[in-house]
Each structure stands twice: as structure tokens, then as C-alpha cells.
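We append the chain.
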Amino acid sequence: MEFEQLVAFLHVARERNFTRAAEQLNVVQSTVTARIQMLEQAAGKKLFARRTRSVELTPAGEALLPYAEQVMESVKGGLDALGLQPDFESRFVVGGLNSIWDS
């Protein structure tokens, strides 16, 4: 079980949608799907019941949710104690044409 898998699990659990969770995590939807599948494989149980346009937590997913939230709170508390900032909430990207840089 990896940290990124728990992060993906929490985002999908909140959004009830893999695509929206991927958008929040700034990754493609297939990455979120793969992380959830690896987490389910490690747990030995399905964590989500997949529907056409949404997902629901299974009983196993409901059981894991409070522990995953607790892990995230512990990590946040550790970062706060060290005075570290978590990953940025949004991105700012600056780009330019090569012709501008060449002049």
C-alpha cells in the first residue's frame, strides 16, 4: 500500500467519480484507476462499486475510509510540526514561443 494510492482513494471517495478525482490530482484518469486497482489488490477486496457515471464505496471501502482520513491528518500534522508546506493546491505555468527567447 502506497501513500499515492490512499490519496487517490480519498479523492475518489469524496468525488464519487474517477475523472473528477484525476482532475483534482492533476493526473490522467487511468493513473487514478491503476492506483485504486493496486490498493484493492493489496487489500484483497473491492473498495468501490463502479457504476456507469459514478462509484460508490463498498462495505470494505467504508471500513477503510476513516483510517485513510486519519493517515492524511497524521501526515498533515507532521508537515505542520516541521513547518513544511504540503504540495501546492494549484499550478502556475509560464510558457513562451522559442522565437521570443531567441531574440
